Predict the structure.
Amino acid sequence: MSAKKLSEYRQEAMALVDEQVNPAGSVKFSTAWWLNRINKAKNVVAQNSGFHIVRHLVPIKQYTEWSALPTALCWGILGVRFGRNPLDGIDDPFDFAMWNAEFPNQPTADGIEVVSASAADTTQTLTIYGTADVSDIVQREDISLTGTTQAVSAETKWDELLYAELDAVCDGDITIREASANATIAEIAAGDLTVGYLPDMGSPSDYRIQGQRVYWTPVPDAAYVVQMIGGGIPADLSGENDTIASLPAHFDSIIALGAAIEAEGIDLYDDSQRVRLNPYYQQFMAQQTELNRYLGTIDRSRTTAMRLGA
């Protein structure tokens, strides 16, 4: 059985609503008007069934434990891969390596200054990690010490300091403070090297979905790209001979049904439309259920897929 063409979807939908005339332009029942309804039905079915599987590329930022879910992702996630390696999906957030801000005083859109209690501390470098400019993206900056004279960060809008590390011990205590009011954020005692919590870092091995974000563990030590395999929206139909290749051919009628429902529901101007609309809608939902059941039998991984919003 070959896939239906756009022209065939339109003719079937028109027959369902007893309308066989295509007026010119983009008015109701015109060819352009039906095109919009057919593509909308296609999108709804893809979102509800996941019949169109796509590899979504997800960029990962260095030091940042999360990425935004792809905007084109719908239905659910069948798998996530980094290179050839599958990543494990984990539900428990306590199994994740995450940044933890431990300092009660934070800069809040301010620069950071570093000063030592000893004038001899001029060869060391302090590396700080934090967020800036009202963003959850973690960044890193190296600050060269200048003894008892404050060294100032290049970033002027730090919001949260997460961790700081010296490359060598210092003779004096190191104070990390806000640039504007000199309020102390954290201190590193003479002889110590770090303050704060540094999570495990490396290439991603596990992921967790929360809201519209995907969290990675360990925290990325570099910029990476992972493949997220899940539902997507097929390209819109436009030409008369266009088909939806990824939709199983024996479920083609579901698209015409969806378009007919949209057409009947726009303006219910007589009782005959009301009578037709309800059974069409029931058929539409029943066919989507059957489509999901069919897809589950040909691809068992779908039955355990991570469903978005579940």
Notes: The chain has three domains: 6-51+233-307, 53-98+201-230, 112-196. The first strand starts at residue 53 and ends at 60.
